[in-house]
Write a structure and sequence with these properties.
Number of helices: 10
CATH topology of the largest domain: UDP-N-acetylmuramoyl-L-alanine:D-glutamate ligase
Oligomer: single chain
Distance between the termini: 39 Å
Structural class: alpha/beta
Order of helices and strands: EEEHEHEEEHEHEHEHHEEEHHHE
Shape: globular
């Protein structure tokens, strides 16, 4: 079982326009709405490639599109109530430029003391899970060390469940100190953490290996158009981005996490897990909106990923 924690679910409203005009009129050509949130995406992406997955966390009012999407995907769910409506995130796809602009609401504030209930919920589900995924933004009034506290609680009382952290800023920095099993930052998030730009694969490699030395078992970095990278401190691999039609990048990182989890559950070595992760992310960008992984494309793309070993001295 995979359990994904989603503290700040949302409704993604994706609209497509021909060409974005700042400060002017933009006419919508197509629109769709999907219940979403990074934890929701991870759970559903896992289901799409055959894994048993659940989603837990906080949920506000008017959440039918979120809870219904999880139910249709076959994901068990348990959410603590949030006092207010689920946030709406607007994603504007400029067809001509192939660029998505995101305008996100903050979400419903966490009630005083509710973080302790969230820790208890996470530990309870961790005991029946092989992996607990902590991912996405936190709602207002949520303490930035909550992910770290959950990871520590799961390590002490989670029945051997391994934690995967996909976060940014202070949430990521504090979470590292709690020693999760895996980190999945993108290049920008890793640069923020390191306080410097990481233009080359050698720079990414150096930064990622330093995190392994701090107690993280695996660091996987998504590099957008430059591909992806992973290391366990001993081995490191890089792959260029696959040449596939890009319809939406929303949820690609979440799908990459799902690819890793499938490979880990299969007991595959790091290089083969990396293949599954890159194929899953690539199959995700081929779908529109937040539809996530095209399972058939995922299976077909596995043979197109060629991991390249990264040596420590490579720049």
């Amino acid at each position: 079982m995979i359990t994904a924690l989603c503290l700040n679910p949302c409704i993604d409203r994706t609209v497509e326009i021909e060409r974005f005009t700042y400060g002017g009129m933009n006419r919508i050509l197509e629109a769709r709405e999907d219940g979403s949130g990074k934890g929701v995406n991870v759970a559903i992406a896992c289901r799409q490639i055959g894994l048993a997955a659940a989603c837990i966390g906080l949920m506000g009012d008017k959440a039918g599109s979120v809870t219904g999407r999880l139910e249709r995907a076959g994901c068990p769910q348990e959410f603590l109530p949030a006092d207010g409506p689920v946030r709406v995130n607007l994603k504007v796809l400029d067809r001509e430029a192939g660029v998505i602009t995101e305008i996100n609401e903050p979400g419903v504030p966490v009630a005083p003391g509710q973080e302790e209930d969230l820790i208890g919920l996470s530990v309870r589900w961790a005991r029946r899970s092989e992996f607990l995924i902590l991912t996405g933004s936190m709602p207002p009034a949520c303490p930035t060390d909550l992910y770290a506290r959950i990871i520590e609680a799961v390590r002490l009382d989670g029945g051997g469940c391994r934690c995967v952290l996909d976060a940014e800023g202070e949430k990521l920095a504090l979470g590292i100190a709690a020693r999760p099993y895996m980190l999945k930052p993108n290049r920008y998030e890793l640069e923020l953490l390191c306080g410097r730009e990481l233009p080359g694969i050698g720079d990414v490699d150096e930064a990622a290996r330093s995190l392994v030395r701090q107690g993280v078992a695996i660091v996987a970095v998504s590099l957008g158009g430059d591909g992806a990278y992973v290391t366990d401190g001993d081995q490191a691999y890089w792959s260029c981005a696959l040449d596939v039609p890009v319809r939406s990048t929303v949820g690609a990182g979440d799908s990459m996490v799902a690819g890793y989890l499938r490979a880990f559950e299969m007991g595959l070595p790091l290089a083969e897990a990396f293949v599954h992760a890159v194929a899953a992310a690539s199959a995700s960008v081929m779908t529109e909106g937040t539809q996530l992984i095209d399972a058939r494309a995922y299976e077909e793309l596995l043979g197109r990923v060629s991991p390249r070993p990264v040596k420590r001295s490579e720049k």
